[in-house]
């Protein structure tokens, strides 16, 4: 079973103040996923189980920022926070609907599983989440699609749960064989490659020591950026689940990675 995470930086115009889908990337990636899943006759399953997780990009981040979701607040502001929760949830659902539409049009039996409908957190980390239904969908050959979302938290009341955290949690409990994480850079560098010409590519990360020297991402969003991703993936590596971070802007990279072919990127693995 493979989990494919597609970043908000790929599927949306991430820095846009208005929610904007990158349709060229979305439709190309949907086609790459279809080719990786099925033979031409649409008969054989080439991959034994796929779950897709996507980020919130320019749909989720502006309202999350506007309502400061995740920051401490006084109970007198709770109603406004709840409106913020609803707004974020509604926006990420819209993005999810557009993504599922494209997947379906490309012949992929996508089924949306909104995290806010079945996950709660404790201090911004997932702690209650029943994955039985997802397992059943996978068993039937559906492709569950989850996404970064808002959830109820028993400590801070309202939390944003990133696609990266969801990926980490479900990979562990569904015992995923492999993780492919598509973002807008071809892996982890010694510095942010978007802002530093002297950034050096890191082929493999095996422990937190390997990324200790990294400056914290300058492209930080409410969910943590590149360092946050690597930490989630290192946690999985401890469980023996390997992952790779690849550039999903690169044509064919996702389809190659899904089929187990070599793609330039960063591997996160214990071995
Ligand atoms: P996504 O929306 O795809 O989940 P993010 O925007 O959260 O992705 O994170 C990817 C971004 O992290 C890249 O666009 C890059 O600018 C930034 N980044 C910061 N530091 C690094 C680093 N050391 N190596 C690679 N990318 C980095």
UniProtKB/TrEMBL annotation:
One GO cellular component, as annotated: cytosol
Family: Belongs to the isopentenyl phosphate kinase family.
One Pfam family, short name: AA_kinase
Family annotation (Gene3D superfamilies): Acetylglutamate kinase-like
Biological classification of the source: Archaea, Methanobacteriati, Methanobacteriota, Methanomada group, Methanobacteria
Provenance organism: Methanobrevibacter ruminantium (strain ATCC 35063 / DSM 1093 / JCM 13430 / OCM 146 / M1)
Record flagged with keyword Transferase: yes
Residues of the site described as Transition state stabilizer: 14
Name this protein carries in UniProt: Isopentenyl phosphate kinase
